[in-house]
User: Fold Atrial natriuretic peptide receptor 3-like isoform X1 from Acipenser oxyrinchus oxyrinchus.
Amino acid sequence: MPCLLFLCCTCVWLLVLPVKISALSNEDSDIDVLVLLPEENSYIFSIPRVRPAIDYALKSINSNESLNSGFNFKVHYNNSNCGNQALFSFVERSFQKKPDVVLGPVCEYAAAQVVRMASYWNIPILSAGALASGFGTKKAEYTHLTRVSPAYSKMGEAFGAMFKHFSWKKAVLIYQEDKERNCFFSIEGVYAVLEAEGYHTMTLAFDLRHPMEIEEIIKSIQESDGIVVMCAASNDIRDIMLAAHRRRMTNGDYIFFNIELFNSTSYGNGSWKRGDKNDAEAKQAYAALKTVTLLRSVKPEFERFSMEVNRSLQKQGVSGEDDSINMFIEGFHDALLLYALALHEVLKNGYSKKDGDKIVQHMWNRTFEGIAGQVSIDENGDRDGDFSVIAITDPEAGTHKVVANFYGKNQSFEVQPNVKIDMFIQRLPHDENRVHGNRDTPPCKSSGGLGESAVTGIVVGALLGTALLLAFYFFRKNYRITIERRIQTEECDIGKHRQLREDSIRSNFSAA
Ligand SMILES: *[C@@H]1O[C@H](CO)[C@@H](O)[C@H](O)[C@H]1NC(C)=O
Ligand SMILES: *[C@@H]1O[C@H](CO)[C@@H](O)[C@H](O)[C@H]1NC(C)=O
Ligand SMILES: *[C@@H]1O[C@H](CO)[C@@H](O)[C@H](O)[C@H]1NC(C)=O
Ligand SMILES: *[C@@H]1O[C@H](CO)[C@@H](O)[C@H](O)[C@H]1NC(C)=O
Ligand SMILES: *[C@@H]1O[C@H](CO)[C@@H](O)[C@H](O)[C@H]1NC(C)=O
Ligand SMILES: *[C@@H]1O[C@H](CO)[C@@H](O)[C@H](O)[C@H]1NC(C)=O
Ligand SMILES: *[C@@H]1O[C@H](CO)[C@@H](O)[C@H](O)[C@H]1NC(C)=O
Assistant:
């Protein structure tokens, strides 16, 4: 009797089983991708701009054995705007169904919240943005974030390599505040590397509400004798360069850098040109300016990709008049590819798509073939960055060329052949003794004093030391005042709001 019952049960079970399996696999055969980006096309990483790149990546994944795990990728797009909306969209969407992977957000303050939440939920999150240095602290709070575009600190490495290569000692970092604080975070990346390597840095900020006082900037540059690194709107860069030129600071005495990562096509050839009466002067001034930008690599498949994305953008009526493929569009394509690669490997090892931490592990510390060339993700889950320095090589025509490259993976800075190296040599404008006599002497190094009388020596030494210390202190204080005044006036306006926003990324940039 029990035997019959058992058989019966087995029969029923066997009948039910296939249904069960197919129900299970139906639900489980989807990879739910949530893309959180702004809908607004004024952002160069808006949903309409990035969508064609993601479509392209999906096609590659579906047609390639080593990327296709038999899953059906379902992509949902939700508006992130550039702030809190990102978190709201993410949470709201997750009430219906938690996504398996998140792509985006790009804006720093939007990303901070979403990345924390995704990490808590064990969901891998990949972004071509979130470039601020704060996101590098993965262990502490951004555990599941993989950054597929080079972060600002990677650009900082490029400056670090240049400072070492040319034995530069000091830097003046100048940035413009704006709503998204891109320049603040860019300069922070440079600051972090230069400070850590012991270079003397000074920082100056200006913004729209406090119009740039060119005099003040020029004076600070002259006082510091440092390498000038700027991040600002192109018109402001031009104004600074014109002012510097009129004070004869562009004849090799100073070296100016301009950071332009996302909009590189608008730089380079003719970026000094405005069609106004200052063009001739600006062309001369720009001979002293170098621009740091992303290294562009191109391979045949990239051409196909650009054409397809371009066509799709035109169909949607999104303006693509300048370079339609930027770092973000390229990055999100590569992000989906990287996720598919990691997923495939993780499944092969017997885990499931829900093992977010395992998938994240497989995305880090590896290289893979991206749409524009090889992509190397470091041990911390951040892409290594390759950067180019472009400069005017024909002063008559005012045309630019790539004069040097920095490769992040091997930390190698390489000047192009046939480039005159003196464009990187700073000729100090002032009398060396005057400048260095009261500034660079370390106050504690006053060891001169063991002459005839040791006592006199020590007393004199002590007095000298104190005097130097005081001088040094007041000098530093002066510096601080210039810098902090600007920072303070700014904080009065935005006050706690900005403070809060700053805290939410844990940016460790300090301006003194
Ligand atoms: C499939 O993807 C792998 C990994 O990215 C790549 O090495 C290979 O060339 C691709 N194959 C085809 C046919 O595209
Ligand atoms: C987010 O996506 C869901 C489902 O795809 C949709 O219903 C909702 O309207 C979207 N919200 C926004 C703000 O785009
Ligand atoms: C890119 O540069 C052009 C020309 O300088 C400018 O009009 C445009 O607003 C810039 N775009 C972005 C996203 O910064
Ligand atoms: C994209 O389209 C624009 C015209 O809308 C064209 O000028 C540009 O060359 C195209 N780019 C590519 C890569 O095809
Ligand atoms: C990264 O990969 C290299 C070899 O590819 C290995 O030696 C190293 O231990 C890995 N690092 C981590 C943190 O897994
Ligand atoms: C600038 O134009 C010159 C000549 O037209 C060209 O050789 C050079 O590659 C261009 N440089 C950049 C950075 O586009
Ligand atoms: C660093 O890597 C780049 C690109 O991968 C390569 O061209 C260059 O030769 C390397 N430099 C050194 C010193 O290994």
